[in-house]
Design a protein that fits this description.
Elements: E1 5-6, H1 17-28, H2 39-59, E2 65-69, H3 72-92, E3 100-104, H4 110-122, E4 127-131, H5 141-147, E5 151-157, H6 169-178, E6 184-188, E7 207-211, E8 222-226, H7 252-267, H8 274-291, E9 296-297, E10 308-312, H9 318-327, E11 330-331, H10 347-351, H11 356-360, E12 363-366, H12 373-390, E13 406-412, E14 415-422, E15 427-431, H13 438-447, E16 451-456, H14 462-474, H15 489-492, E17 499-502, E18 505-509, E19 520-522, E20 527-531, E21 548-555, E22 558-561, E23 572-574, H16 576-585, E24 590-593, H17 597-602, E25 606-607, E26 610-611, E27 613-614, H18 624-628, E28 635-638, H19 643-654, E29 660-663, H20 666-670
Parallel strand pairs: 1-11, 3-4, 3-5, 5-6, 15-16, 20-21, 23-29, 24-27, 24-28, 28-29
Antiparallel strand pairs: 2-8, 7-8, 9-10, 10-12, 13-14, 14-15, 17-18, 18-19, 19-20, 21-22, 25-26
Helix pairs in contact: 1-7, 2-7, 3-4, 8-12, 13-14
Length: about 675
Amino acid sequence: MNHDIYLDANATSPVLPEALAAAVEAMQANYGNPSSSHATGLRAKAILDATRARARRVLGAGPGRLLFTSGATEGIHTAVLSALCAVRERRAAGDVCGDLLLYGATEHKAVPESLAHWNRLLGTGLTLRAVPVDADGRHRMDVLRELAPRAAMLCTMAANNETGVVSDLDAIARVLKDLGSRAYWLVDCVQALGKLPLHLADTRIDYAPFSGHKLYAPKGIGMLYVRDGAPYTPLITGGGQEDGQRSGTENMAGIAALGAVLKALEDGATFRNHDQLAAMRARVVHALREAFPGIVFNARFETTLPTTINFAVPGLPARELLDLFDAAGMRVSAGSACSAAKAAPSYVLEAMGVPDWQASGAVRLSFGPLADEAFIDAACARIRRCGQAMRGMPLASNAAPAGQAGVARFSSDGRHGWLVLDHEAGECVAIDPPPALAGRMADAIRRHGLRLVAALATHADAEGAEARAALRVALGMDGADPGPLGWPAHVADDAANDALVVGRQRLRRLPGIGADHAMYLLDAPRLVFAGDLAGHAFGAGAVPADAILCHRADVDGAAWTRPGAAVMDEARQLQQDALERFLRTHGDALVVDVREAFEAEAGALHLLGRETRNLPLSRLAEHLEHLLAAPQRPLVFICRSGNRSARAALCLQRLGHPHAWTVVGGIALVG
């Protein structure tokens, strides 16, 4: 791809050119300290004052405080500290303040974490309570009405960062007014700036934090609005900057850049309006529906920002969708960027009560109000390309070496299932399908026109039996186990030919293991499906010395092992600065792209001008013999981020290849 399509604007945004120019000018020409009284300092102070005045107009701040911060997290902490200090003082004076700290169940984690932090440090002893949301992601007014009389503070958000759901702030304000609540009210407005009308002085809101980098300003600059009359305690004291409200020399480059963004908002000509953005969203949604039949959108468009689309695709985990989009040069995310590294379902979607598969498989696509028609055209084209890649033949697109069976691995949370297949014969055998992936295996078998010969297990357990039954039922077969561990009775009765035939290959059950365990030997490639057991567990000579063991769960962090192989903890690494020199020195090195076939179809990968060979990590088993047969040829594994390539390189090292390498950071850092 010749350029990125950035669709993760809720995480951060590129810097507006005018904002970049303003920041550079502030650093080069107007670099004075705004607290200095000389001319250079006065020019800096003029920028500071002009930006604050513009912010007041854009936000409708009226007589309220408006101070610059490092971002929304600082603003949230300042607001919570201010409110809880006031609560503590009111209680000391005998005033009834409530005993609850309420926050929306879908709030950004910065809010409950801040509440818990200052509640503990200040010793206020209040109880944190989440206000649940309904299926649309909006706060339950009935629950809020019940709890509000006990609230010392209430924290909600204007629009959710994961789903784009817009809170009904008017309804919340009515509840507080009807009950005569004196609770302090914080509204996280991070996703609202530039997308929702704001007239803060006309509202009941006490505190509203903002973050510049969510709307084309640099990171490290934000704002905090404090309603006139609301209590305020500085988080940072010292030099008395910001009229004593927030000490520390001001971030003048950030403030100048934010001023340029606010100027664009005030002028009204730079950013798209709500109707234009809604029309753009409709086009993207149409492309997604074309690309992924069965797609489910996790929030109603009627109650969400037009710039945020949260969705899930049945049978496709979020990780695979992210890899697919990334291969096509599209940058999207799974939920909040702050929690993307954590392999857990979205707590926001769980709070909305969506099914588990949607919460764990959710992908967020977000664009900013600077988007134009050409950008949306390009995004839709690549989304359609992703759909075409997924509708291809990922099990067949990387054919097994001549004369060998194909072997595909299906993995989930360290559990592995295997599919031995012959496309020409149209047959396959499933081994140890993970319970969470039985449906995906069935879908792959159907999509590639294969007939399931048997669903086998290496261990007799109820969970595995249920998964195999689910696989057979999904394929329209009898769900009952045909024999011990799934081994067909007619094969077991033929003692002279105790083997399953899969096209041109034979899958034999090795003897002497017992009724509750089994091990299966594939002729070519020479693989033994050994479940959780190591080769020595089956007795001397039971496992061929040259065989590679394929497990149903990671053994020392790997899906493959070899009897007696050394255990290594880290793959050999090629750092970015040494990569070009290494490739020049080793002209015969095989560069292996271990991304899945659908990723390679969505976007080809080159490494510093070198062609790569796509051997997906899920299909690596069928190629291990050939890779190991040339131990002197360097193998350089590459993927998007370096995680999968590190696993591939480590696997080859453990199996005895002396020259297997991974590229640290993957293609993302190569450029």
